[in-house]
Design goal:
Shape: elongated
Largest sheet: none
Radius of gyration: 18 Å
Structural class: mainly alpha
Number of helices: 8
Strand content: under 5%
């Protein structure tokens, strides 16, 4: 009989989501995971099967917790001027003030998964699609269910990810808050 697990699996998955959100999948080695998570290599493989198994668990957790929380907040508070247009901050764009440590890693991991892993991994693509379905559904409800709002919701979700990518990649060169404010003004004209 093996030894009992000496780590909290849920905490390891949450922390792995943060690691994978900060760096691309291929940029993180198993050694990086072992040292960053404080889990022995053997325990990591026994629990998750592989680096990919841990990645899928982390991506799924992020979708279920971070993206679902964002979707719930969007559905609750709506979009437009009332939902944070005063500052134009891209994280206030859709659902009022959101703390970067809560939202940032969820969007970062979703964005990385979308461009890096989803094109070659069906399971990653499925989780990414589920995440977008959560966001699109919430945005569709917030924008109003009629007409072409489904397409508008998809566009707003893509804009949110785009603003996050620009903010992270070229922060000094792009004024993401101003772009968020411009998008809000456009939504208010609908």
């Amino acid at each position: 009989m093996g030894r009992p697990r000496s780590f909290d699996e849920a905490e390891v998955v949450r922390r792995a989501a943060d690691l994978f959100a900060a760096r691309a999948y291929d940029a993180i080695s198993v050694d990086d995971l072992v040292s960053g998570l404080g889990v022995h290599r053997h325990s990591l493989y026994r629990t998750f099967g592989s680096k990919r198994g841990l990645y899928l668990a982390a991506l799924g957790w992020s979708s279920e917790h971070r993206i679902a929380a964002l979707a719930a907040r969007i559905a609750e508070t709506g979009v437009g001027a009332e939902a944070g247009a005063e500052t134009g901050d891209p994280y206030e764009l859709l659902s009022g003030p959101l703390r970067d440590e809560d939202l940032g890693p969820g969007l970062d991991l979703l964005l990385l998964a979308l461009v890096e892993r989803a094109p070659q991994d069906r399971e990653v693509a499925r989780i990414v699609a589920e995440s977008f379905a959560l966001l699109d559904g919430a945005l569709g409800r917030a924008l109003g269910a009629g007409g072409g709002q489904g397409r508008a919701a998809t566009g707003v979700a893509a804009a949110l990810l785009g603003l996050r990518a620009l903010d992270q990649a070229v922060r000094p060169a792009v004024d993401a808050p101003a772009a968020g404010a411009a998008l809000l003004r456009g939504l208010d004209r609908r």
